[in-house]
Amino acid sequence: MTIKYDITPSDEAERSDVVPYYTPKQPVPAGTIYQEDDKAEVPKLFQPIQVGNLRLHNRIGVSPMCMYSADDKLEATPFHLIHYGSIVSRGPGITIVESAAVSHDGGLSPHDLGIWTDAQAEKLKPIVDFAHSQSQLIAIQINHGGRKASGQPLFVHLEQIADKSVGGWPDDVVAPSSIAFRPHGNYKVPHELTKKDIDRIVNDFGDAAKRAVEISGFDAIEIHGAHGYLINEFYSPISNKRTDEYGGSFENRTRFLVEVIDNIKSKIPSTVPVFLRISAVENSPDPEAWTIEDSKKLADLVITKGISLLDISSGGNDYRQPPRSGLSKSTDGPKEPIHVPLARAIKQHVGDKVVVATVGGLHEDPALINKYIEKGDFDLALVGRGFLRNPGLVWEFADKLGVRSHQSLQYGWGWWPNRQQVIDLIERTSKLQV
For the NADH:flavin oxidoreductase/NADH oxidase N-terminal domain, which residue ranges apply (predicted)? Predict the structure, then answer.
């Protein structure tokens, strides 16, 4: 397959028409590999991948990471624009904006993003517009914290309730069952959700996705179904002790997630892909804990519901889980990034029916990550901390793998003295083998 770029040489630089201020139109997305030799092998980490209707120009994504920098209305601030702007302009295949609460009672802290109002969605639009002005893709993760809502930002205190004095809502925390995350801990015992409130939150997910697409303009939606938040709480036997149609059997415990997916799908265009992050295992000593076999069964289910990407993580729903080292023993013996064995198991199970992404410790060695992707262990590497340390991580990965990547016109000046040379280079090297 040959990728062609539509470039019109001009003495006057073209400008992006996405934003109201001047920024040059990017002829090629930053992070795209170019080749002077069409026969040269491109590392699979830098080969495009199709996710639903989206074509990602490489297989390095920005994992959603809470910044705890929203204002008292849980709206995005200039910090978010600068934070995400510094990353998207340097070329990841897709950037996933941090967890945004779908309901007034679902925020992880009083300074997490929300998207249950139009005003919150409007404050996210400048971030999306900037990404699009740089020819980059951007998604958002939507979430309800369940029994872990109304917590403190991590830089204040880990796993401590935010009371009313700091803008929290401790009396309104809800969950599938009235079970605290940690006995005698800082989180309060949640209220068990009524059927009416379940219906409300299901609709809140759908409405949030609709706002994210229609108002903010995001390219994809990720449902947060991991780390002990509400969706995870429903499908896990550890936290769900209900006896109605939302508890007991696997079918009943996954019913809430299925209804969320259906509601979202009914409210956004079919062209917008929906991703799902799951905790593939619970890392728990509880004999009833969720297992990788449960996750394979869940993968089969959500594929039939139209999920385009599975984002594999683990844990977060049992306070007894051991501290993570960032490494895990594979079945072959050597240590590897913690979630790679889980992603491998899911990928082997689902094959090409869905894109499989994973996260956790994937920022250290791009050659190793490329090897995993070449072997088919997973399809897309999601990186969090690595981008916090180095917004130009994609550029660094390319350098370490011995290939050259396109950069934005603003950042490429040290290598390309003028626009015409950029155009000439692209015209010579635009045959990229996929």
Answer: 44-396
Q: Which residue carries 């892909």 as its tokens?
A: 273
For the cut 80, the answer to whether the pLDDT of residue 326 exceeds it is no
Give the Cβ contact number of residue 4 at 10 Å. Answer: 8
Position 237 in a domain: yes
Q: How many residues are given for the chain?
A: 434
DSSP H or E run through 404: strand 404-405
Reported pTM: 0.91
How far is 281 from 396, CA to CA, in rounded Å? 32
Q: Is residue 419 part of a domain?
A: no
Helix (H) or strand (E) holding 224: strand 220-225
**Backbone Cα Rg of the chain:** 22
Is the model's pLDDT at 271 over the cut of 70?
Answer: yes
Residue 423 reports pLDDT greater than 80: no
Q: Which of 147, 141, 172 is nearest to 159 (CA)?
A: 147
What domain range is 187 assigned to? 51-402
CA distance 399 to 386: 15
Q: What is the mean pLDDT of residues 22-46?
A: 86
Q: Is 186 helix (H, G, I), strand (E, B) or coil?
A: coil
Q: Which two structure tokens, joined as six digits, stand for 193?
A: 């959700």
Output the pLDDT for position 339: 96
Dump the DSSP string for 244-302: STTSSSHHHHTHHHHHHHHHHHHHS-TTS-EEEEEES----S-TT---HHHHHHHHHHH
| Residue with the two structure tokens 């801990």 | 185
Residue owning tokens 């006995």:
183
Residue 432 has pLDDT above 50, yes or no: no
CB-CB neighbours of 72 under 10 Å: 8
Residue recorded with tokens 């920098």: 69
Instruction: Give the start-end residues of each E strand in 58-187.
Output: 60-62, 94-101, 113-114, 138-143, 174-175
- What distances in angstroms separate CA 190 from CA 49, 109, 150, 170, 352, one per listed residue? 42, 15, 11, 9, 40
Instruction: Find, among 61, 52, 139, the residue nearest to 93 by Cα.
Output: 61
Mapped onto helix, strand or coil, the DSSP state of residue 166 is helix
Helix 195-211 and helix 118-133: axis angle, to 10°? 40
Q: Which two tokens stand for residue 213?
A: 């697409």
CATH number at residue 136: 3.20.20.70
* Any domain includes 367: yes
* In a domain? residue 414: no
Token pair for 166? 């700091």
Distance CA 249, CA 229 (A): 20
Average pLDDT over residues 177-189: 89
